[in-house]
């Protein structure tokens, strides 16, 4: 067929649809070596540097006593003791604790050899569903050590004197550990009993 110019025009073939390109694979995050001293045992690992200490203990080592609750550092279910101080395992990275001394609930005691605070929790019914209990006990052990060391809290009235073992001190120091079952008064009783026994031994 002739066009307006009087010359024949070749039909232009439609553009061929191109096959969709697969997205380029992201480079794998390099693993980092770290050795954690967990409950008195060296545990060498290679982890993604973004791995939290809680996930390393639970998923890589198999110590599932420390619980993942909120995963935002708000409930205290993942509390563990690192170099003598209690921390939230979900808020810190495993690679930050090369060589650190880490104690989890498994390292405090076992069913046939309970830690005194574990036994007191059983005696005073300091748990109900039990989900928060490992963090409560680890935090409680560290709290009693803090009071014994004379470290003040927001509830300490006289900062020049050693803190007293009072209900207000215990409640303030344990306020970062939530119990949805509401066993707070029983937890205070358990901690008070253990602290009394420790004081009596210290005075003997």
From TrEMBL:
Gene3D superfamilies named among the record's database cross-references: 3.10.20.30, [2Fe-2S]-binding domain (1.10.150.120)
Keyword Iron: yes
Catalysis: reaction(s): an aldehyde + A + H2O = a carboxylate + AH2 + H(+)
Gene Ontology molecular function, alphabetical: 2 iron, 2 sulfur cluster binding; carboxylate reductase activity; metal ion binding
Residue ranges, compositional bias (Low complexity): 8-28
EC number: 1.2.99.6
Main location: periplasm
Pfam family membership, one: Fer2
Entries under PANTHER family matching the protein: OXIDOREDUCTASE, IRON-SULPHUR BINDING SUBUNIT-RELATED-RELATED
Record note on quaternary structure: Heterotrimer composed of PaoA, PaoB and PaoC.
Record's protein name: Aldehyde oxidoreductase iron-sulfur-binding subunit PaoA
């Amino acid at each position: 067929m002739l066009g307006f110019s009087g010359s024949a025009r070749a039909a232009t073939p439609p553009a061929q649809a191109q096959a969709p390109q697969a997205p380029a694979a992201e480079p794998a995050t390099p693993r980092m070596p770290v050795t954690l001293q967990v409950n008195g045992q060296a545990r060498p690992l290679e982890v993604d540097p973004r791995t939290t200490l809680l996930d390393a203990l639970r998923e890589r080592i198999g110590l599932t006593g420390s619980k993942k609750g909120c995963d935002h550092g708000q409930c205290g279910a993942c509390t563990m003791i690192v170099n003598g101080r209690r921390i939230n395992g979900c808020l810190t990275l495993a690679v930050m604790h090369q060589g650190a001394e880490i104690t989890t609930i498994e390292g405090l005691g076992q069913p046939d050899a309970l830690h005194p605070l574990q036994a007191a929790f059983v005696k005073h019914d300091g748990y109900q569903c039990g989900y928060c209990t490992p963090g409560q006990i680890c935090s409680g052990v560290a709290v009693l050590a803090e009071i014994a060391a004379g470290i003040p809290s927001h509830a300490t009235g006289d900062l020049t004197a050693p803190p007293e073992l009072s209900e207000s001190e215990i409640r303030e120091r344990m306020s970062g550990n939530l119990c949805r079952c509401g066993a707070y008064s029983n937890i205070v009783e358990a901690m008070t009993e253990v602290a009394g026994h420790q004081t009596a031994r210290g005075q003997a």
